[in-house]
Write the structure tokens for this entry.
Amino acid sequence: MDIFADFFGGMGANLALGFSQAVTLDNLFYCFVGVLLGTAIGVLPGLGPIATIALLLPITFKLDPVSALIMLSGIYYGAQYGGSTTAILINLPGETSSVVTAIDGHQMAKKGKAGLALFTSAVGSFFAGTVATFLIVGFAPVLASAALKFSPADYFSLMVMGFVAAVVLAQGSLLKALAMIVLGLLIAMVGPSESGSPRFTFDNPEFFDGFDFVALSMGIFGIGEIIRNLEDETKREAIKSRFLDLIPTKAELKEMIPPILRGTGIGSALGILPGGGAILGAFAAYSLEKRLSKTPQDFGKGKLAGVAGPESANNAGAQVSFIPMLTLGIPSNPVMALMLGALIIHRIVPGPTLVTDRPELFWGVVSSMWIGNFMLLVLNLPLIGMWVKFLTIPYRLLFPGIVTICCIGVYSVSNNPFDVHTMAACGLIGYVLFKLECEPAPLLLGFVIGRLMEQYFTRAMQLSFGDATVFVREPISASLLLVSAIALVLVLLPAIRKKREEAFAE
Amino acid sequence: MRKWLLAAAGILALGISGASAQNYPTRSITMMIPFAAGGPTDTVGRLIAESMTKNLGQQVIVENAAGAGGTRAPGLVVKATPDGYTILLHHIGMSTAPTLYRKLAYKPLEDFEFVGLVTDAPMSLIARPGLEAKDMKGVLEYIAKTKEKTSYANAGIGSASHLCGMLLQAAVKQQFNTINFSGTGPAMTDILGDRVDLMCDQTTNTTGQIKGGKVKAYGVTTKTRVKSLPDLPPLDQAGLPGFEVAVWHGIYAPKGTPKEVVARLTQALQAALKDPKVISAFAELGTEPVPQDQATGPALQAKLKAEIDKWRPLIQAAGQFAD
Amino acid sequence: MIRPIFKFPGANMASTTSKPTSPLAVITAVIGAALIGVLFYLRSIEVGWYVLLALIAAYLVAAFFVLRRDGGFGGVSNPKDFYTGILLLGACGVFAAGLVELPLGRVARPGPGFFPLMLLSLLFIFSIAILINGLRTKGEALTPVPWRGLIIITGMTVFFGATIKGLGFIPAIVVTAFVSCLATRHWTLVSAFATAAILAVFSWAIFIWGLGLPIALCGSWLRALLISLGVAGESIPFCY
């Protein structure tokens, strides 16, 4: 009992300290500016949180470190949220995290349910953010040291499992989904290798840096989608949608709650891993929902659970990824690395001693996360009406705008015309993939994870002195691989049997 | 809001070009950093950029062009217009690249104008928490016992930790199982997780972990103790006589940048190195600014030449080439 | 029709959403993937590459004979899969050409070519399996392609990339937006002009005025043109 009293007492005191830091007029202002700016850059394709935070770093030098970090983290999760909006409305995932949201979210929008999809995404994100904040408050140090148990081999196997999740997510042929993942992984290999020597560049300097994710994703999804919509122009005119549609019915509410809970769980669990677990969260959540659903055939056609689960997982993962940064000083993604830099410039050395040395900073930032999430909710619910209105513009007027904004957005990432050309090529590829019924989402997952996966593979092999059995010898890795294998067999077997049933029926 | 955003973006100057050397600078200056944001070199760069901004009256914007073991950013800077609006901050890697990379797109000594040295950052040798050795002697015994199975983490080829590792291998006459990571963060994960034995990295990256007692620490790579880590002996005295390496940083401009512009940049650098804010921030990182007479072009040029000659035989002996 | 005796937990899902998959294709993929594993294991015990090449050749020959015996070359019955397989094989070729010059390293110290070679082998196996599926299962025919939209949209994207530096922000946007409007047959001159104008103003307001992106409003070609027409360089600072 005493332990619990201490625990909750301590938690209360910590939170009180945190809120006393975060709820000052200044900090609330910076938090608001952060989420507002974050939402804005998230909605616009192109410029992501990394570029924005890098641009803003100089002015944060003049701020108090707590305010600086509060504003920067506001941008981070604001951008996550804004990215989902574009993904849902015009099938344009500008962030890795919104690739999965686009699958069912955009289909919902096409059915006139954009309001509901945006509402689900807002509420799911808020809930996940709240849970994740409490996780950080209660268990940050414990979770962080648990995450250290993951060896390179375990990470490799975790990524294999992520791929199985992406295969399950596929609507069509499983073989094609597998091929798409491998193709994505190979495309990620283009550019400098770990030692810096160029690979697959065919001596063309434009390829030396590899491809840009934003260009790839906006080409395959955004431009590809436009070409595909031009196929039958009569169908895709204005979408009728009323503001009131965003308020879910009781049945819809009932439908979205369990996926939100599960998504939060998965996202939090994967987000703790500093080596890129958060990327897999949305994919895993989507696959789980599809697997648990009674009507899996509806996924990919505008299923509410397909938005609720991944969105919650995203936000939980984004929030929880602060744990390794604040408690271990290990950045789990480039945004966290920038935050780390911001801290160091404020002469705060992040690491295990941060919580005890600078409690006001640690708890202030943690509390501001919750406040930021709340602000996002308040900011975005009224905006949904505006976004939905946006879709009532006839498509023939809308698509030239999407093309142009995509071009500017991709160009703005690094002022490199080559990125725009990459996007054009990827638009064609995206359209061909659609024609041939190949899923683009697994390809993008492969692309995002390719580099990391190679690094983990290489490291695992080096650490084991070339013994490949390390992947089945280490318990975490072995169990992850076993789960993947079972899942894959379960998905493959019925597909074969179906074919045989057809043969027998003849 | 608009004003704020503009200030925020730090791109006040919409690129009004045609600057002449007399009224330099008339728009924002880009400082390229060859490593990812948040790393130690980036931190040094941002502190200096912030302070130089005050002196120059124009934003000095840091741009991270990480990749290719720190050879990507210099390659970009060499190709930039030599007008003083693109400069480079690089560390010791500038002197090792010509030996590590046999196909380098630039010549460090010939393709740049030299602005000045910035700082000499010390490094520290740390180990996984489960390593039993109590001091450097214990580490040497451990290496003698495990031989080539001793694992050593570095933050990527060409990084300071990679160079320190090579020096260490030469000092103990034993090749390690060197594992390349893509940055100090991932490397630290495997040190903290008890999977990789040793790492030698800049104190910027290690001080937090050492003070928190999460890793074992055995010494610093300078000849004298470091103020922020007073308990650590210099490796020179702790069992590796003569062992010394410091991560020196310098600022460069592309070849052909006007003399007056380079002089103006040197002046701004010297002012930044006198800035109390920079000095105290450097102290926190366990380092200090170089003396004013070192923050000059000729000093940097001499240092670079000496260091290239110092590292060439070491790298060739280790047989480690990056490409 | 045979009723399954027991139901797999995921059976309801896969049987409703998955396209029919030929068992032969799956077997090809599984055996192939297993072969890759064996190959890399053999490689790890330093077997020469010619052994591995011989194994791959044996696999291909076996696949060919199995297909022929099964009467698999009956024609392209599932074009979507067939063409996917062909395209993926093409991608394999491109990556194989790039892989040749990469050092593979050792298993204990994989080089830059090691992981890509693993991936390439897998992709090759999957391509063959998908190709077989294209010959062995029934699928829908390909639907017509909207050539007009496809050419205009990709063309304008390429145009934007090619001219953003030379023409600059505003002209590139106006042309891109205007011509993009022609991608649909339901365009009118008024709407195209209006769209282009609105987009130019809107993009300027957001990206240049609001976010302060460092993109020239009119580019270097236009600057040169204007100067050659006698306009003073100082009067057009927004062109660079």
DSSP finds twelve helices and ten strands in chain B. Confidence is low (pLDDT under 50) at residues 1-20 of chain B.
